[in-house]
Amino acid sequence: MSTLAQEFSKGIFKENPTFRLLLGMCPTLAITTTAFFGFGMGVSVLAVLLCSNIVISAVRNLIPDKVRMPAYILIIAAFVSATDMLLNAYVPDLHKALGIFIPLIVVNCIIMGRAEAFARKNNVVRSILDALGMGVGVTISLTLVGIIRELFGAGSIFGFNIMGSAYEPMMLLASPPGAFITLGILLGLCNFAFKRLGIE
Amino acid sequence: MRESGLRMALTLLIIGVICGGLIAAVNGVTAPVIEERTMVQFLEALEGFFPEVDSYDVSEIGNESFYTCTDAAGNFIGVVAQAKADGYGGAIFYDLAVSDSGDIVGIRISSHGETPGIGDVITKDEFQDRVIGLNVADSISAGVDVDTVSGATISSGGMLDSIRRVMDIIGENFLN
Amino acid sequence: MERKLVVSSSPHIKSPETIQSIMVDVLVALFPVALMAVFLFGFRALATMVIAVIVAMATEAIILRNGSFFGDGSAAVTGLLLAMTLPPSPPWWVVAIGSIVAIGIGKHIYGGLGNNIFNPALVGRAVLFVSWGTHVAGSVWTRPVPFGFTADAITQASPLVTYNASLGDLFMGTVSGALGETSALALIIGAIWLFYRGHIDWRIPGGFIGIVFILGLFDGGFSMGLYHVLAGGVLLGAFFMATDMVTSPVTPAGKLIFGLGCGIVTMAIRLFGGMPEGVTFGILLMNGLTPLIDNMTLPKKFGEVKKSA
Fold first, then answer.
1. DSSP per position, A127-155
2. Is the Cβ of A70 closer than 8 Å to some Cβ of chain B?
3. In this complex, do B30 and A85 lie within 8 Å of one another by their Cβ atoms?
4. For burial by CB atoms within 10 Å, which of A160, C58, C123, C227 has the most?
């Protein structure tokens, strides 16, 4: 049985959902045009993941095995809808920025994956730590991809101009193929680094 | 315990009801806030389009609302339409302000699902400046008197189609 | 890659050809094309070619860390081919990034020479085209001034936009365009050398150029067919890019299919697409299909019978 600290930290490094488990690729590719979008998406995923992990681990013994998937989908969809409406009401700027990608959290494999792989087998405390670790891992990863794409694709980071006014943005990184190329290079670097560190 | 079909159905039913209740509750809290903010934003935009506006009349044509604006002296000064266009990522909701002489004086995208960095060019001056100033008598068709934005052909083309349609409605019903 | 002991199945045929000898032949074949580019577009063109080649070789040397700058010569060929697809004088950093991308992402990410899926030079060009379209396409084509080595650059629309250049100008190359694509004459001289040395097969360029000509016929008769072949990058692509040994099929039938596919995509983009030229994306797309084409057109083994389902 791993310690509680490991339960939290695994999502950030060894089992980073984006770079190690390759989960949630759709939002990773779609919304990381800027660092802020990546960060906002990461935090939204963190919030939904935390709620769904808590509820699913709490009711894990009440749900019959055969219908657990539809049950999880219902629970996750409810939290996503609630998040969508709350953001729209109280943080309209972020809601406007993330647009259609908030409803898409429903089909984010990270949340479904953690429900299936972790929350239904572990108690609430461990599930909370798991959700926090995974959520922070996603946030860091998406922000990183966003920073790289925004830096080269627009010359700024979090909207602050970095490259100066003479910089001519590399449109490729702002466009969808740029997401694939950036993610591919980061995945390669990650695998390289983990190999060097001796972690498989 | 044997997992009977009844138990499965009941579990899903209960979860469904609870989730539905949660969403309804949240919606009950947030819907008025959202609606109020949307209306405030729309009225701010309307006053931005026609600073001299004193009162307005709402009329519904199709599923779209048209606000007929009059100034303090009761003169007709223009129409603001709350319209809908088909974009690349679903519907685009926008406000289109047309003066009494049939010129487009303003456009505001209120909500859209276009791709950030590509299709969302419709919210920016790069696209909007192409539209502002066009007249109801103009053809307003892509490639004739206004161009779509390259790379965002579907988003900007959808907007142009919709603007043409709204202009026809306005020309027929509000301008003489 | 140097292996101490190569184990492979028969037959073993010893060939005097090495990668280096082939690459040198390609460089020789590109010489008339490069010469023509300098003749038409002046020293700006030479500068573009030199930057592209040097950056490409430096990138390769850094990645391989084998201490040899020229190496097997393939980086020089990639750099020069990239320059051939660029306008006469893009900013130096655009050329340099193109070369770095071509060698780094186009070639070595896949494992180096022999393992790349896409033609590296065209990967470089595609990235530049998508990223800095204003510098490598659009209104960047300068008017050629024969012998005007230091003449001022005057921009002029590409013949693939205007469709009004004379066939004679297109053949000689006195039209605007990318460095290596304007002069059909120089390209044909270079191609004859490659044919003579046996490095390229007639099927890929034949299929490519043939189908462009035939589809061009439908766009306005015989002269339009010729126009489509001579204008733009079809000849450069057909002789030097599509024939790249690594990224094109090895079977005879496959080569023909590959060439036809390149031509069809090129013409589809030219006639129906949003861009005036489609050679780059035509070849890149077919590069991606190469393993599939090879698989489909594998010749029967001697004595092989069709398996019944």
1. HHHHHHHHHHHHHHHHHHHHHHHHHHHHS
2. yes
3. yes
4. C123
Give residue A130's identity as a one-letter amino acid code.
D
**Position of tokens 């057909």?**
C238
Distances (CA, A) of B24 to A79, A81, B29, B31, C231: 12, 10, 9, 10, 64
ipTM for this model: 0.75
Chain A within 8 Å of C132 (Cβ-Cβ)? yes
The model's pTM is 0.74
- Chain A residue nearest residue C133, CA to CA: A171
A104 touches chain B (CB under 8 A): no
C292, pLDDT greater than 70: yes
The per-residue pLDDT for range C125-161, each reduced to its tens digit, is: 999 988 887 787 766 677 777 766 666 667 676 777 7
Strands A156-157 and A160-161: antiparallel
| Contacting residues of A for C101, CB less than 8 Å apart | none
Q: Which residue has the higher pLDDT, A96 or B7?
A: B7
Chain A residues in contact with chain C using a Cβ-Cβ cutoff of 8 Å: 168-173, 175, 177, 181, 188
Q: Which pair of structure tokens corresponds to residue A188?
A: 């390669």
CA separation for the pair C132, B22 (Å, rounded) = 49
> How many whole angstroms separate alpha carbon C237 and alpha carbon C85?
9
Longest distance between any two alpha carbons in chain C, whole Å: 70
Q: Which chain B residue has its CA at the smallest distance from A63's CA?
A: B11
Contacts of C133 in chain A (CB under 8 A): 171
CB contact under 8 A, A168 and C130: no
CA distance to B27, B32, B63, B109, per residue, from B37 (Å): 15, 8, 21, 15
Instruction: Flag if A177 and C132 touch (Cβ within 8 Å).
Output: no
Tell me how far apart the alpha carbons of residues B112 and C251 are, in angstroms, rounded to a whole number.
51
For residue range A137-182, what is the model confidence (pLDDT) as tens digits?
999 999 999 999 988 888 888 878 887 777 888 888 888 888 999 9
- Write down the mean pLDDT value for chain B: 85
A171·C105 Cβ contact <8 A: no
Question: Using an 8 Å Cβ cutoff, are B171 and B79 in contact?
Answer: no
- Residue B94 in 3-state DSSP? strand
C109 touches A at CB < 8 Å? yes
Burial C25-53 (b: 16+ CB within 10 A, else e): bbeebbebbbebbbbbbbebbbbbbebbb
pLDDT digits (tens, 9 = 90+) for C78-106: 999 999 999 887 889 999 999 999 999 98
What pLDDT sits at residue A141?
A: 92
Residue in B7, B19, B31 nearest the CB of A78: B19
- Please give the Cα distance from B102 to B98 (Å, whole number): 6
